[in-house]
TrEMBL record:
Tree of life domain: Eukaryota
Compartments (UniProt record): Cytoplasm, Myofibril, Sarcomere; Sarcoplasmic reticulum
Protein name per Swiss-Prot or TrEMBL: Myotubularin-related protein 12
Keyword Cytoplasm annotated: yes
SUPFAM superfamilies the record matches: (Phosphotyrosine protein) phosphatases II, PH domain-like
Cellular compartments per GO CC: membrane; sarcomere; sarcoplasmic reticulum
Amino acid sequence: MLDGHCVLSDVTNWYQSPGEVVFCSTNPILKYTQDDISQRGIFGTLLCTNFRVSFISDETPQEEPTQHFKNKLYGENDIPLMCVDCLYGVYDEKKKLITGGMLKNKYPSKMIIHCKDLRVFQFCLTFTKEEEAKKIFQGIVHHCLEPKSLKCVFAFSYANTKGPEMQRTQRTLMFDSQEDWSQEMKRTKGNCRIVTENQNFELSERLPKYFIIPAAVSDDDLSKFPGKGLPIWCWSHHSGCALFKASSLPVTQEDGVAQAWMERMLHAVAQTHLYSVKIEDLLETLPNIQDIQQSYTKFKQFFLIDNSTDFWMSDVKWFSSLENTGWLDIIRQCLQKAVEVVECLEKENTNVLITEEEGSDLCCVISSLVQIMMDPHCRTLTGFQNLVQKEWVAGCHAFLDRCNHLHQKDKECQSPVFLLFLECVWQLVQQHSPAFQFSETYLTVLSDSIHVPAFGTFLFNSAFQRESCLKATLQHSQRGPLSWPAVWDWSMQFDCKAQELFINPLYAEKLKQEKVLRKVPRIKHQRQLSLPSSAFKTPPKKGFFKDEAESLKKMLRVKRFSRWMVPPDSPAVATRQFYEAWQQKPLDYHGLLLPCLDGPAMRLWMQRYLRWTPEAQILGGGSVAITSKLAELLGEVRALQRELAQKGWWDSMGEGHHRPQTMSLALVRTSLRLSSYFPFAASRNWSFKPVIPTGLLQSLMVTDKLASQEDETNEVISLV
C-alpha cells in the first residue's frame, strides 16, 4: 500500500524507502541523454514521492553493471526533493523558468530539472496522455517548488520508521551534552567555563543548549541580552590564548548600559590569556551572505549543461568567465582572513574575537578554517566531523534558511555558506593532501548530503528549532519520540567498500614511534616547525598586559580593534611575511598548515562541478589514475612493512586502526577503465567520444581565429 496516493502496478526494480509515499506517476516518459543535440533517450516511468523525483527505465539491462559507489538511499536517476534547484519548461522551442505560481493548464513539451548537486535531467512529455502529462508536471512543480511546512519534509516520515539502532553515532561527538563540550575543552586544554543555563533555551533560542564562555563572564551578564554579543568559545591554542565568536550587539553612544556590558565582555575575553584581545568584524572585510549567493548563482551556471553545444559555447572564455563570477575570489578572501586570525593566535599569542551580525555564518567559516589549519585532529575524518558538528550544527548555523530546504519565496536568507566552507577545505586538501585523512570524494559526498532529506544534521536552523519539532511531533504521535539519523552514519548511504573511498590513501598518519622517541613536548614541536625563532622574541606590545589595564580600557571603547593599529594595507603584507616565514621551515603535516593564496593556487573543484559532464571526462586518466597508482604502491609498501614486522625488523607503526588499507585494490587495478571523475562517473558507460559539432567548430574558428592551429578537421574534433 502507498498510503492511498498512488499504486504502481507495472513498475519493477524500484526500491521504496521506509516512510516514502508516491504522490503521482506516469508512463511512458522519454528521458533524454545529455550527450548531444540528437535528443536520444530511454523510455520509462516518472514518479514523484515525498522523498524524490524518480525515473524507472522500461529497459531491462542484460547484465547488472557493477557499481562500486552506489548510494543506498537514491540512485543516479533519482532527485531528492530538497536537491531540486530550479525547473524549466520548453514551450514552442523556448526554454522558460518555472516558478511555484505557474501551475497553468498548459504543460511543456519538455521538462528540464537543474539539481543542487549540478545534475541536469530532461524529460519529454509529448509521448504521454495529456491528462497524465499535466498531472505529473504539476505534481513535480508543486512538491519541488512550492513553499512547504517543515513537517512535510521526508525526514519526519523517515524518522518515524527508525528504532533505537539509528541513534547517534559513537565516534562523532554531537555536542548536545555537557560531557561532549567538557571532552573538547579538555582536549584543547582550554580554561573557560561551560554554560548549562540554556538547557531549556531560557537564555536564547539562537544558542545551543550548552556552550562555553570566558571564565570571567558572570552569571548576571549571561541574561542581559538574549545571546547577542556573548563571546562563545571556539578553540584554545596551546599557548593559552583562545578563539571566540559572537553576534553583533548594536551599541550607540547614548546606550550606556550596552556599552558597559560590551566592555565587560571584551575584558572577559582579554583575561583568558595575557590580558590581550583583538577583534575582527567579518562583515567589514568579507562579502555578506547576499554577495555570496549572487556570486555562486553566476558560478554554477557554467556547470549546469543541457547539451554538448552549450558546453562548447562556454568553452571559449570559460576560465575568464569563472573568474568574473567572483566565487574563487571569495574562497581566497575567506582563507586569507583565516590566516590572519591564525597569525594572531600562533605568532602573537593573542585572544581573538570574531563577530558578525548573527555570529553563525562567516564566523563558522573562519573559526572552522582556523582550527583546521592549527589543529591536526580536525584534519582526521572523525575530528573534521566533530568540528562541523560543533561549529555549524551545535553552533546554530541556519541550514534550513541558507539552503532554502522549504523553497520559500523570500530568498534573502538563502546563501551557500556551508558549501563555501567546504570549498575552502578542498583548497587546503589539494595543497596539502598528506595532512588530511579524508579525501575529496568525502567532501563531495558531504556537499551532496546537505540536500538529502533523510537526516536531521543539516535540516534545522538551531537546536531550539530541532527541540521544538521533537516536542510538537511527540504530542501528536503514537509511536514515541522521533529519532533523526545523523549524516555521519555513512552506512545508511554507502557500504563499507564505498566508504573506503572517503579515506585519503596518501594521508601521512602520525607514527606511534614519535611519542616514544620525542621527549620534546608536542607544543614546542609545533611552534618550532611553524615559526622562525625570532618570532618568539617579539617584545610585548603596549596595552596588552594587566598592568596597563587603563590603556586597554580606552581602546575597548572603539567598535573594532585594528589588528595591527597601522594603515589598512599592512595586514596583507604582515600576513605574507608570516606565510613566507612558515614556508622556510620543514613542513610538518601534523603541525601548523597554511594555504598558498596566490591566484594560480586557487583551483576549481573539478570532481564536484564537472563529474556529470561527459565532455570533461578523461577515460583512464586524470587524478584518479595518479592517485590509484600511488595507492597501489602504498599497498605494496605496507605489505612489505607487515612482512618485516613478522620478522621483528619493523615496528608495525604504520598500521593505524583509523584507516582502511587504502583504496580497494579491485578498484585500483581497474583505473584504466575508470573515468577521471571516478567514483561518480565510474558506472556510466559513455557510448560516444566527446566531439565538437561541425557547425559550432566552424563558428569558433572564425570567431576566435583558431584556424591557425595545427590540427586539421573535417567533420568533428575528437577529444579522446
